[in-house]
Structures are given as structure tokens and as C-alpha cells.
Design a protein that fits this description.
alpha+beta; 18 helices; 8-stranded mixed β-sheet; about 35% helix
């Protein structure tokens, strides 16, 4: 054990100077972290050393190991793309300098540099390189984020957890993100991120990399028990090779529409001759649904798929869609309905590949094109409607990633449960980053309970908790559009309701979807009959709504009925039955698919008795509504 070195004794670093004139001042200052100046100065000196001719052959051999044998088999053009990729090249540089060695761990370049040049380096620079010497590129899953403060990471190979001091990455990562990073210790003992890494990894990427590492680990143990420490630095090569061959060189996905056509972004443009005539004709067109003022969507088929969005702006009418066939169809529809009020101008087309290249070539900070393919407000509404319908059906859709099992089935099988959990974590992490960026973000939190997965312990299996009811005996689902009568701009919701729901539950669903509080009387007027519930002194209607199910009513697609709420304020709603569909494509009900604007506050005197003061009339969040729908009781309870 070494005793304390006195101030006037020779410095233990070997410089020949007195301790007080050499390293002692640096030790007494005890910096919290390595400054940017220290890091840059130390790395520059190290890098100059590494560029010496004596290391060229070692560098070339390690580059071949880093990229693997497949690199020689890919075309020269792709080889150049890989070598010029900033993430690949910068990660290789750090791996080559700090980890790579064909002669054992002691022969790494950082150890050679320190053994030859340590006495010439300022003490902070040497301490920094010693700290970096112990860093390794590893896979981590983010377990928690403290914005502007730090991250909690779990090493995916060892399972070790690290509390990391970090600021920038807390804005780029979310809980459940998977990332490859280097960690090192700061002088004060805090763990920090240093050097390049790989982001954008999914849980499927993580499992593929870990599978490869397990195979390599077994091979190493069978040979020499990792006597030369090569398995440690192989982590970085395995991660890099997955990124290169499974991500960087992977061909772009071939996307098709729900009707099997290749995705092609199309804008069908008309010059408008008579704005009022066009507006009136669009309102009369039964194939279109009003989505906003002067904005419409064209919905077709049993699955109520959105085929086009249409917007009227001044003297221009634009229809956006995602295939050439749909562009032709929407042009014919509009020319038939609008006649001489418009004149066809042109159809702009852009395929997926060019759209991706345009996005990649856009410089950081450069804004979106002046005329986006779909206006932002329409895009967000379309996304909310599509995602709610898609993910409600997704949990009952067989998926290749789950061995053609549905997520609901996979949740109850050990073999596929881990893959499903990885998919959910990817969804949640991506959604959180979208939310932080101020963009539309879907709320996936309901899936854990729906699939019977405990998010705190995803390995635990339990029976799924039914948060809503299935279609039941009727086997059908009613697609209802409920609109508040007299409201301008319109206030409406589109909901899916099981045909087995009694009318008292239909009241609860419509009331909740619109945003009312169910604190007043209500009734239905359907095909000339009034339906209500027993009230003190009699029945509020001709028939007891609790005894009549939706599927028992004489309703057909296109028919409508009236739903009244709060007889004092006189809130009346027109409910249109848009479609009756077979059950099973979505899974559980009720579901709010879309809507627009907030319902008025309670007790304000009716449609003409309220203004925008005190609340946001444009507020609408389909995720909030569906969260409320999932908590509705099974039976309506009277308020008296």
C-alpha cells in the first residue's frame, strides 16, 4: 500500500518534477468532469499516434473484422456507401482506437499509446484516455428518462443497470428505446455517455444482435475460454454488422394500399370557377364526409378505408390520395359531382423512394415544402382516425413477426410473448418521442391490460382484462356518426358500437363520446317511437330503452334517429347509421374512430347560449375519448 506523497517529493508520474509542481495541483482541483478542451486535446494526440504507418495493416485487418466477410460480397457502390456512412465510420474509429486488437486486450492502441506517451501527456488528458480505455460499445435499453438530467439504462447483455448523467440524449430517447452507446466514468464517479453510437434500433434488432452474441460467446468458450478477451470487443463488431446489413443496406419497404396497389402519393388539382357551387356540391355528395370547414374525406368499403382527402382553398380544389388508381377514381367522382364548377388542371405524383430521398436530402432546419402533400391539420385527424381503427384491429390480426399468431394469442404463449412485448415497447417509445416533438402521438397504454401483460413485469402471464365488450351474439357492429344539431362549425363523433348493446348503454356511449357528463335526462326517437328510462312518476318515453338492443331496431345503413340530452338545455343530436359491419375486424367495442370539436359546457342554456369563453371549442382528442369509453360501467345508473 502506497503512502501519501508529500508535496516536495518527486511526482509519482515519473516526470522528475516535484509533486507540488506537477500532478498535485490537478489532483487537488478534483474536477467534476473532463472539460471539452481536455477531451479534444487528448483525443487529437491519440489520433495522430494512431495514424502512424506501423498501424496501417492492423487497421485494415480490424476493418475487415468489423464489417465481416459479407462486405467483400456486396457491390462496390454499396461498399462505398457503407464506408462513407458517418455512423459506421465514426464508430469504427472509436472501436479501432479503444477496443480492437488481434493480439489480446493489452495490445489495443489506447494501451500502446499510454505505455509510450503517458509521461508526455498532461495529467487530465491521461486520466481521460484511461477512462475511455474502459469504455465499450454496448446495447442498452432505456428504462427511464429524466429530461435534461439523465437516463437509467440496462445493459442488454449483462443486465446491469446504470444511472447516467446526460442532457442531450434525454431529448432523443424515451423509455423502452434501444440504443448502442459507450459509457465511461467522470472524475466525480458519475457515469456519462462519450463517443458515437447507433440509434434507431428496435427490440427486434436487439434480439437479433443478442442471438448472434450468444452464438459467438459459446464458440469462444469452446476454444480458449476467451483468454485473449476477444469476445469483449466483438460486441462492437456484431452491432455494426447488424446495422450495416440489416438496416443501412436493407431495401426500402414496398408499401401497398389496402386494395393491393403500390403506394404513390398523388395530388389531383382542379381550378375552381364557382367556389359556392363547389362547396354546396361537396356537401351534397353522399360519398364524402365533412372533416373540417372546406375539408372532406372519401371513405369507401366495409372497412371504411379513407381513399382520399379533399380540401378547398380559394380557387383551388386538391384531392390527396396514395395510389394512381385512387387518384383516377377521385378525379372521376369530383368531375361527376362538380360538373362545370371546376376544371381539371393536373395530377402530381411522387413515389415512396423519391419521397424518402427528398426527406433525407433536406438540410437540418430546412422546413417542409411550401405545399405539403396533406395539410397538417387534416393529416393529424386522418392519422388519429386511422390509428385508432388500425390498432384496435391489430391485436386480433395474425402477424408474420408473431409466427402468424395474433397479438392476443401471442400474449398467452411463452414462445412469442417476448417478441410481442418488444413490439409494444417500440410503439410506446416512438409515440413518446412524437409527443415530445409536438406531433400527433397515439396512446398505446391500453394494450397492456387488453393483452393481459403487466408492464412492470412483462414476463408474467395473466388472463387479459376485458376493458370493453365484443360484438356478442348479433355478430355485427354499428358505425354511427352523431352530430350536435345546430352547431356551426359541426361538432360530431364517429363511433363503433356492438349490435348487442341495449339503448341505455348506447346512451352512455354517445354521451361519453360527445363529452357530456350524463347528469341530465335523455331519450331516443327512432322510427317514430320514443325510448327512455323509468323516472320518478313514470316512464320517460314510449318504451323502456333497457329492454331494446341496437340490433333489434328496424335500422338500415343510411337511416338516422334522434338522441336528446338535457331537456332543459335542449341538446339534440342526429345519429346516422353509416354502416352495419361483421364483427371481428376490430376486436372490442365501443370505439371512437374520429370526431371534431368539443361539445359545449353543461348548463349553459343550449346551442345559442354559449360562447368560447372558459373552454377550447376546438379541443378534441380521440385517445382521451377512447380511454373514457373503456371505463364505462356495464349498466346505466340513474342520477336520482
Amino acid at each position: 500500500m502506497h503512502g501519501k506523497v508529500s508535496r516536495n517529493a518527486p511526482c509519482p508520474c515519473g516526470s522528475g518534477k516535484k509533486h507540488k509542481l506537477c500532478c498535485l495541483p490537478e489532483r487537488e482541483r478534483a474536477p467534476v468532469t473532463f472539460s471539452a478542451e481536455v477531451r479534444e486535446r487528448a483525443f487529437d494526440a491519440f489520433y495522430e499516434f494512431a495514424k502512424r504507418d506501423e498501424f496501417v495493416l492492423q487497421r485494415d485487418a480490424l476493418l475487415q473484422l468489423y464489417l465481416g466477410p459479407l462486405f467483400d460480397e456486396i457491390p462496390a457502390e454499396q461498399q462505398g456507401e457503407v464506408l462513407q456512412n458517418e455512423d459506421v465510420s465514426s464508430n469504427f474509429l472509436y472501436w479501432f482506437l479503444l477496443e480492437g486488437s488481434l493480439e489480446g486486450q493489452q495490445a489495443t492502441l489506447v494501451n500502446r499509446f499510454l505505455s509510450r506517451r503517458a509521461d508526455r501527456l498532461p495529467l487530465p488528458d491521461r486520466r481521460y484516455l484511461e477512462a475511455m480505455r474502459d469504455s465499450h460499445l454496448r446495447l442498452y435499453e432505456v428504462e427511464a428518462v429524466r429530461v435534461d438530467e439523465g437516463l437509467q439504462l440496462r445493459d442488454c447483455w449483462e443486465g446491469t443497470r446504470y444511472d447516467v448523467r446526460e442532457r442531450l440524449a434525454t431529448h432523443q430517447l424515451a423509455a423502452h428505446s434501444v440504443v448502442a452507446l459507450r459509457l465511461r466514468l467522470d472524475p466525480d464517479g458519475a457515469m456519462v455517455i462519450d463517443g458515437p453510437g447507433f440509434a434507431g434500433l428496435t427490440h427486434a434488432d436487439k434480439e437479433a444482435i443478442l442471438t448472434r452474441l450468444r452464438s459467438e460467446h459459446e464458440a469462444v468458450l469452446e476454444t480458449d475460454g476467451d483468454a485473449d478477451g476477444r469476445f469483449g470487443f466483438y460486441h462492437g463488431a456484431a452491432i455494426a454488422q447488424h446495422v450495416v446489413y440489416q438496416m443501412l443496406l436493407r431495401p426500402p419497404p414496398r408499401l401497398i394500399t389496402t386494395s393491393g396497389e403500390p403506394v404513390l402519393f398523388c395530388r389531383v388539382i382542379f381550378n375552381v370557377k364557382d367556389v359556392e357551387a363547389v362547396r354546396a356540391a361537396l356537401e351534397r355528395t353522399k360519398e364524402l364526409s365533412s372533416d373540417n370547414e372546406d375539408s372532406y374525406v372519401w371513405v369507401r368499403g366495409k372497412g371504411r378505408t379513407i381513399h382520399a382527402s379533399i380540401s378547398l382553398k380559394g380557387g383551388i380544389l386538391v384531392a390527396e390520395t396514395h395510389s394512381a388508381k385512387r387518384a383516377t377514381a377521385v378525379r372521376k367522382l369530383l368531375e361527376r359531382q362538380l360538373g362545370g364548377a371546376v376544371r381539371y388542371d393536373r395530377t402530381d405524383e411522387q413515389d415512396l423512394q423519391s419521397a424518402l430521398e427528398e426527406h433525407r436530402s433536406r438540410r437540418p432546419g430546412q422546413g417542409e415544402p411550401e405545399e405539403p402533400l396533406i395539410p397538417k391539420e387534416i393529416e393529424e385527424r386522418l392519422l388519429a382516425e386511422y390509428e385508432e381503427r388500425h390498432y384496435r384491429s391489430w391485436i386480433d390480426t395474425p402477424l408474420p413477426a408473431l409466427a402468424n399468431k395474433t397479438p392476443r394469442q401471442a400474449a398467452q404463449r411463452h414462445a412469442s410473448r417476448a417478441v410481442l412485448v418488444g413490439l409494444l415497447k417500440d410503439f410506446i417509445a416512438s409515440s413518446e418521442l412524437e409527443r415530445r416533438a409536438g406531433r400527433h402521438a397515439y396512446d398505446f397504454s391500453w394494450m397492456w391490460a387488453e393483452l393481459g401483460i403487466d408492464p412492470k413485469d412483462p414476463t408474467k402471464m395473466r388472463r387479459p382484462r376485458a376493458l370493453a365488450k365484443r360484438a356478442g351474439k348479433s355478430g355485427v357492429v354499428y358505425r354511427l356518426k352523431v352530430t350536435l344539431t345546430g352547431a356551426k362549425p359541426p361538432i360530431w363523433r364517429r363511433v363503433l358500437v356492438s349490435g348487442d348493446e341495449p339503448l341505455d348503454r348506447v346512451h352512455m356511449i354517445l354521451n361519453c363520446a360527445m363529452g357530456w357528463t350524463d347528469t341530465h335526462l335523455h331519450s331516443f326517437e327512432i322510427q317514430g317511437k320514443h325510448y327512455g328510462v323509468p323516472v320518478p312518476g313514470g316512464l320517460n318515453g314510449d318504451e323502456d330503452e333497457r329492454q331494446v338492443r341496437l340490433a333489434e331496431l328496424p335500422l338500415t345503413a343510411g337511416s338516422s334517429f334522434r338522441y336528446s340530452y338535457d331537456f332543459g338545455n335542449g341538446w339534440k343530436h342526429r345519429v346516422v347509421l353509416e354502416a352495419i359491419e361483421p364483427a371481428g375486424s376490430v376486436g372490442v367495442y365501443p370505439i371512437c374512430e374520429a370526431g371534431r370539436r368539443a361539445c359545449p359546457p353543461e348548463d349553459v342554456g343550449g346551442i345559442y347560449g354559449y360562447g368560447p369563453d372558459g373552454f377550447d371549442p376546438d379541443a378534441f382528442d380521440v385517445n382521451d375519448i377512447n380511454a373514457a369509453l373503456r371505463t364505462l360501467p356495464k349498466k346505466w345508473q340513474p342520477i336520482w
